[in-house]
Design a protein that fits this description.
The chain has 313 residues and is α/β, with parallel strands linked by helices. It is 37% helix and 17% strand. The protein starts with a strand and ends with a helix.
């Protein structure tokens, strides 16, 4: 089968970085047409820089990186340096990228790519706030029906929030953008915290990355060492979730995940629950289903897949 064409929309972030490496190590299954950076974990200049650092680490400076929106649609940007560090990729020392950003805006790249490629052949993989995707959909509604699928990391239901008691970070940062995407009519698969919190790092899982003996393997281990401390303190857990690689893993091994096709809507008004994803998991309303909302993951197989694919870089 031909590799699935994808655009990774991202705010790296250590876990975003691992997702990018997983994609670039999986050439048979996915072809990365481009990476579009968005403001999220850290401001846009850093996410656009980090995306290029990661491509170079993977030996793929040819992957085009585009800078996108530097702020949510209607709100002030909220960042997560408390999780990811000042650079967004804190942990190991990383060289500055030598590749240049593409001159085109990320939103233009998304629109043009979807218009140029055959309908139903490009999958969008948002790993951060949905600002770039929503802006593209607002500006060019004709592209919505051309999207093959949107597989995104965001939201939470049983796990409720990680940035507020009610909301997951990516959705909270730009709830209006999430609302536009969820109501777009595109096919959507969501990887919420309910999934990602079931696949935590453990010492053997991190050591498997280090034991690869490669630069990408060492970086993933050291990013994880840094990233883990926050969740261990917060949840008292043994390790941390690697949220964003779940999106790419789904493209390669959908059988590792289980969920339900249900109605998911976003709270955009209430100050108390802003950004909450209200998932009708028990189908207690007649609101139409709009997303395949995942709930289960085979964690052992997920980490084995990560190590196997990162070993190829
Ligand atoms: C999401 O927020 C970011 O901090 C991570 O990169 C991930 O995309 C998890 O809530
Ligand atoms: Ca992210």
């Amino acid at each position: 089968m031909a590799a699935r064409k994808i655009i990774i929309d991202t705010d790296p972030g250590q876990d975003d970085a691992v997702a990018i490496l997983l994609a670039l190590g999986s050439l048979e299954e996915v072809e990365v047409l481009g990476i579009t950076a968005v403001a999220g974990n850290v401001p846009l200049p850093l996410t656009a820089k980090n995306a290029r650092i990661v491509c170079e680490l993977a030996g793929r400076p040819d992957v085009p990186v585009y800078a996108g929106c530097d702020a949510p649609l209607m709100r002030k940007l909220v960042t997560a340096e408390h999780v990811h560090g000042k650079t967004g990729l804190d942990g190991p020392a990383m060289p500055d990228p030598v590749t240049e950003l593409q001159p085109e805006h990320a939103v233009d790249f998304i629109i043009e790519t979807l218009r140029q490629e055959a309908a139903g052949t490009v999958t969008l993989c948002p790993l951060g706030p949905l600002t770039n995707i929503a802006t593209a959909f607002q500006r060019a509604p004709d592209i919505i029906e051309k999207v093959q699928e949107i597989v995104l990391m965001g939201g939470a239901y049983f796990e409720v929030g990680n940035i507020t008691p009610a909301a997951e970070f990516n959705i909270y940062v730009d709830p209006e953008a999430a609302d536009i995407v969820l109501k777009s009519g595109a096919r959507i698969v969501m990887m919420p915290l309910d999934v990602t919190h079931r696949a935590l790092t453990t010492a053997p899982r991190v050591e498997a990355f280090r034991a690869l003996g490669t630069e990408p393997g060492r970086m993933v281990a050291e990013w994880t060492d840094f990233f883990e401390r926050f969740d261990k303190e917060k949840y008292g857990s043994q390790g941390a979730p690697l949220h964003d690689p779940c999106v790419i893993a789904y493209l390669i091994r959908p059988d590792l995940f289980e969920g339900r096709f249900i109605n998911v809507e976003v709270e955009t008004q209430s100050p108390l629950t802003l950004g909450m994803t209200v998932a009708d998991y028990w189908r207690v309303t007649d609101r139409p289903a709009n997303a395949l909302f995942m709930q289960q993951i085979d964690a052992e197989a997920f980490f084995a897949l990560l190590a196997e694919r990162i070993a190829r870089l």
